Amino acid sequence: MTILQNEMPKFLQARQDALAALEQAQRSGDPTKIAQAQDGLGRANSDIAGLSREIQFKGGKPPSSLTPPPVAAAATPATTKPAGGAGFVQTGPSGEQTAANQALGDLNKDWIEKSYRVAQDQGQEAGKILNGVSVMRTALAGIGDNGTGWGAEQKKKATQIAAAFGMKNAKEVGSNYEIFQSQVGQHLFDLLGAQKGPQTEGDADRAKETLVSLGKTRRANEFLIDLAQATAERNMKRASFYREMMPVAQKSGNLSSVDQDWSEVAPSIFDSPVMRRWKVKQQ
């Protein structure tokens, strides 16, 4: 705790430096420098938020100065003289500053469409999957071992499980034992591969290795359902995290900082209680 609290002044100073750099960039009117400075401020606020959460997690209290300050307003351009006319004072933002603000606005809009809404949609889909987990486990009991006797009843159960995963080709997936294992597994691996962060790197590869080691057995299918449940639970946490952190990111002006915040706290899928029996010890 002492180490964490001693780090906070350094993070706060970094934010002050980032604010100063942003003010200087805005005075220059250079869109590229402004965008870079805004990114720097966003990272600084993200670092502070992450450290604060760690302090709170360990029972401490972050400093009251944690709240990120608003992005400094653009400096008013200097007095200029139009060619062949009397001098005048420009009271609004320059063309370069307007362009920089527009660029940041476009980036934030793009983030909302491609990141925030995706996270919320996946969170809603995850809720449906969790509601269907018990149905999946019941259906699994009717599939049998090693893919033997894959008849009409087994196809029906497998199709039911694939549909609960949200797979649009559920009927095709349930038509064959090998297809069922392969495509359900790949569907989950794709979800895992899209996760970013030091704790989640390699989750998809580890999951593939585990599934291969289990072969064509009932345990392989049990693993897939456990993996689906753990993935859904993490997606719901991610959706909630994005909703909570978006107001903080709005203060810095850079909404995409939420992605970096999540990557720093996102847990490995193998840390889920339901996945502990499948966790492979790291060498």
Residue stretches low in confidence (pLDDT < 50, at least 5 long) are 62-81
Strand content of the residues, in percent? under 5%
What's the number of structural domains?
2
| Straight-line distance between termini | 29 Å
Helix content class: 55-70%
Mean pLDDT across the residues is: 76
Number of strands: 0
Radius of gyration: 25 Å
Order of helices and strands: HHHHHHHHH
SS field, number of helical segments: 9
How would you classify the helix and strand content by structural class? mainly alpha
Question: Which overall shape is indicated by the principal axes computed on the Cα atoms?
Answer: elongated
Major sheet attributes: none
What do these coordinates show?
- With 283 residues, the chain is an all-alpha fold.
- The chain has 2 domains: 1-72, no CATH class; 114-273, no CATH class.
- The protein is built from 9 helices and no strands.
- Helix 6 runs parallel beside helix 8 (218-252).
- The longest helix is centred in the middle third of the chain and has 46 residues, at 95-140.
Layout of helices and strands:
Layout: H1 2-28, H2 31-57, H3 95-140, H4 152-164, H5 170-173, H6 177-193, H7 203-214, H8 218-252, H9 257-265
Helix pairs in contact: 1-2, 2-3, 2-9, 3-4, 3-8, 6-7, 6-8, 7-8, 8-9
Pick out its properties:
2 domains, 9 helices, about 280 residues
Q: Quick gist of this model?
A:
This protein has 283 residues and is mainly α. The protein has helices at 2-28, 31-57, 95-140, 152-164, 170-173, 177-193, 203-214, 218-252, 257-265.
